[in-house]
Amino acid sequence: MSHDEAFFEDLVEDSAMALPLALALSTHRVLKLVYKSVEWRTGSSSQGILGARAYIRGGLLSLAAFGWNGPQEEEAAAGGGTLLGKLTLVGWIKVKGVFSESFGMRMRGSGSWLALLALLVLSSSSSRLVRADVDDDDASYSSWLDEMDKTSSSEDKQPGKYNTNHDGPPADKTERQNLEVTGGVDAGAAAASAIKTIVVAKDGSGHFTTVQAAVNSIPKSNKQRIIISIKAGIYREKVKVDKPWVTFQGAGPRLTEIQWGDMASTKGPDGNELKTFGSASVAVNGDHFTARDISFRNTAPPPPGGAVGRQAVALRISGDFGAFFNVNFYGAQDTLYDHKGRHYFYRCYIEGSIDFIFGNGRSFYMQCRLHSIANPSGSLTAQKRATTTEETGFSFVKCVVTGSGSIYLGRAWGPASRVVFSLTYFDNIILPQGWFDWADPNRQKTVFYGEYKCFGPGANRDKRVSWSRLLTPKQAKPFLHTGFINGELWLTST
């Protein structure tokens, strides 16, 4: 992929993410808008239009109707005149998959990307602009609409009722009185205002040619924000960040990538196995770490069923107050080790097969795509909270779960494991029971596994385990904002 193509691809995604059209454009208007765009690119034949439908349905159509955040809650419940009344968004979003895999392979010129971008911008404009439609009696449009309905519609059953007879903390505390920040909040403000930039470039045009060399140049007692600007390229190196206030700034998640291929069974310099903790391609131990517009990958192949020692971490975050914006994480078993501390993930892509988000962090995932490559089965999370008094846990809000295989939403790695999904789309890869107790029935009494207003073919709770919870608005509220991680006190200084 050329730099220009990647630029337009990112531009399209950024426009799509910002679409405000969760306000109810009618089915009629949205479908006609998409139809006319496809007709323009494929010719007027209904055959060409129907063929192109497969490339745009999952991403463009759904984004145009709902935006990145999904349907508005009340409209979603009622169906109304919006697209939700007709379609249940099989393949809703799959944004990066549809855009980069489908479009990326077929749209190789900047003109095509600009055309798609123009459609997205048009879609996000006022309803008056969108009303310039084709004739209602257009036969090709009717045929295309019929095909859309046949291939995309289904009905979701009502979720089961919440069972109040199980233990678990209400998660209504933010632990503000126990906030621990190295140097205090004032030091955080000072660090945010004192910024230094170090450039890493493989071609030698920067200060360093490797990321680790740039990190090594920072003093351990660092108290200012250091931005390591990493130019486009694949950096094959194992990186350890043991300094505070470091930012990795990439050129884009498709352009800048750090990768390595260690597994838990890989022997270290001392001849001993690295174990899962030591397998990370990038290990972050410093507080106030930030990453933007970059990818982290563990290149170890996906493990076969029953394999031992094949855990392979792309990134481990062990520092407090870590934030990730538009970052991609690639791996299979144990992709993202959310080890400990408070962390924020925004518009990230996280891919894996078994327990691919795991650890005992206290983390908030907002508008992320969580993509399974399980074959045949796996699990999304493995949270390790030990007791019901711990404030750790994972909260996922307005995310999208897609991919292959059949997966659990979570496995109870810790006796009091805590994970909540809110306003999140589940594709049909979610196992009906939803959650697994790690083969320890005692954990059913102490885990806190919640779902709140999730939707999609995998959100049906009819067969969910009885010890998972369908949360009320009051119960879900503490998990719906960055107060869960005390974000109001530190995110502004990232």
Keywords:
pectinesterase activity, Pectate Lyase C-like, 2 domains, alpha/beta, EC 3.1.1.11, Pectin_lyase_fold/virulence, 23-stranded parallel β-sheet, 494 residues
Give the C-level CATH assignment of the largest domain: Mainly Beta
Task: Using the coordinates shown, work out and report the CATH topology of the largest domain.
Answer: Pectate Lyase C-like
How many domains comprise the coordinates?
A: 2
The number of helices is 12
CATH architecture of the largest domain: 3 Solenoid
Separation of the first and last Cα atoms: 31 Å
Shape: globular
Q: Strand percentage, roughly? A: 15-25%
User: Would you report the number of β strands?
Assistant: 23
What is the average of the pLDDT values?
A: 73
Structural class: alpha/beta
Question: Tell me about the biggest sheet?
Answer: 23 strands, parallel
Mind telling me the C-alpha Rg?
Answer: 23 Å
The CATH homologous superfamily name of the largest domain equals: Single-stranded right-handed beta-helix, Pectin lyase-like
Low-confidence stretches: 2-193
Helix proportion: 25-40%
